[in-house]
Specification:
single chain, 25% helix, 3 helices, 12 strands, 43% strand, alpha+beta
Length: 194
């Protein structure tokens, strides 16, 4: 009987679905604009805690604040929350976590945390990535997680693409034209020796 219960509990965990993602998945902002993204969790099994890291391109955006959402606070639960350590030079946030004080529970889809960012004065596209995501139940078991990252478009990326194309053309042309002065110098050297 005990073996059947253990088997049923493991098959229940195997079929469990936990989705963590960043919303919106794609957003466009102006250069120098403040904006927010939500980290959301959706689970069909009981959960008690989550831990993760964020990665982004620091040349395009910086993170200013991370605030706990309502996901683990459902049902009036108390939590311990860490906004993590923001490093805008490396483009990382490490040690973001939240834990329910008490037993795990089945929670409705909601916001785990709200992230406020500010775009730099440079146009481009950056991925905002969730890394090293661990979501657990109160038994301390890590649950299978599906991660959905986001993309932020800063400024006019069509102008950036056009500038890159122009730069490539220029370098190709200057590469070809740099042979002319060299050939001219070699001819002068040849005629001077004669």
């Amino acid at each position: 009987m005990y073996t059947i219960l253990v088997f049923l509990s493991f098959t229940g965990l195997a079929g469990a679905e936990v989705i963590i993602g960043i919303s919106p998945e794609k957003t466009s902002v102006n250069e120098g604009e403040s904006f927010t993204l939500s980290i959301t969790i959706e689970s069909d099994v009981n959960v008690s805690g989550a831990e993760l890291e964020l990665l982004f391109d620091p040349a395009l955006v910086n993170i200013t604040t991370i605030v706990e959402g309502s996901f683990f606070k459902q049902g009036g639960k108390s939590t311990i929350f860490s906004r993590g350590s923001i490093n805008n030079e490396l483009g990382t946030v490490t040690g973001i976590y939240s834990v329910i004080m008490g037993n795990d529970m089945l929670l409705k889809p909601s916001t785990f945390a709200t992230v406020t960012l500010i775009s730099k004065n440079t146009a481009g596209i950056t991925d905002i990535e969730l890394r090293n995501v661990v979501i657990t139940n109160s038994a301390g078991e890590s649950l299978q997680v599906t991660v959905k990252n986001a993309k932020v478009i800063v400024g006019d990326v069509t102008a950036v693409a056009a500038n890159q194309d122009d730069a490539e053309k220029e370098s190709k042309q200057s590469g070809q034209n740099s042979l002319i002065p060299l050939a001219f110098a070699m001819m002068c050297l040849y005629f001077t020796r004669k």
